Amino acid sequence: MTEERVQKIMAQAGIASRRKCEEIIEQKRVTVNGKIATLGMKADASRDDIRVDGTRLQTPEMFDYIMLNKPRGVISDEDVGGNWPAARELIPIEGRLYPVGRLDVQSEGLLLFTNDGDLAHKLTHPRYEHPKIYRVLVAGNPTEKTLDAWRRGITLDGKRTLPCSIERVQKTKDGTWLEITLKEGRKRQIRRVASVLEHPALSIERTAIGPLKLGNLPSGGWRRLTEEEVSVLKKTLRQSRPPQKRQRRPPPQSNRQRKSSSSKKRN
């Protein structure tokens, strides 16, 4: 095998997502051949002794891909406070599995669990902009002007949200159902934007992640992805490329600057 970055090897072994593995390395919990690993260090998983918290890394021979329809009142990750049941507890399969992305406690819908850290990284990293679709009930009946503002982006924590797609689905006595497609996933983003626009989110259900669709999976139910779903998902990730940063155009030159530039060329 060729050498790869330690955090990538850890993610492929199912320790955690690549970003989380980087945090573990920064906490000095990882060693390579007895030496504390650092970010950027490379190793060969077939040759080197890589350990996390003293336990030698074992690269799994097979990856698991589990779709869960997370119900309300369940936390996506482990609840260190012990106030909520964890979504992982709804999947009666032994072994290490961790959620790809998050849904807050009161949100429901599609949650993917896997031990394939490399796939999890590519699916969740914001620079790849993989679409996630949500069915959202908001209070009241937002105007098109309000929805257009949401589509263009709202400033949260000093940074504008990426443009998104919003379709008005249905008006009911409880509020308005929207279908929202995001290409980023900031913490509680939909709830926060809806609150800023004075149409609080009453219900949020994620129905799709990239090519994966929740379908008719019942609340609290889970299933393994089919071979076709895994193949399509991996193909989508292989074809995806992070968007290139737009280069800023230089500011227009004044008449004085143009004259100075042309005189330099003549000289």
Q: Fraction of residues in helices? A: 10-25%
Q: State the end-to-end CA separation.
A: 59 Å
CATH class label of the largest domain: Alpha Beta
Order of helices and strands: EHHEEEEEEEEHEHEEEEHEEEHH
Secondary structure tally: strands: 17
CATH topology term of the largest domain? Pseudouridine synthase
Low-confidence stretches: none
**Beta-strand content estimate:** 25-35%
Q: Outline, from the CA principal axes?
A: elongated
- The CATH architecture of the largest domain can be given as 2-Layer Sandwich
Structural class: alpha+beta
Largest sheet: number of strands, sense, barrel closure: 9 strands, mixed
The average pLDDT value, as a whole number, equals: 86
Radius of gyration: 23 Å
Number of domains: 2
Question: Count of helical segments?
Answer: 7
- CATH homologous superfamily identity of the largest domain: Pseudouridine synthase
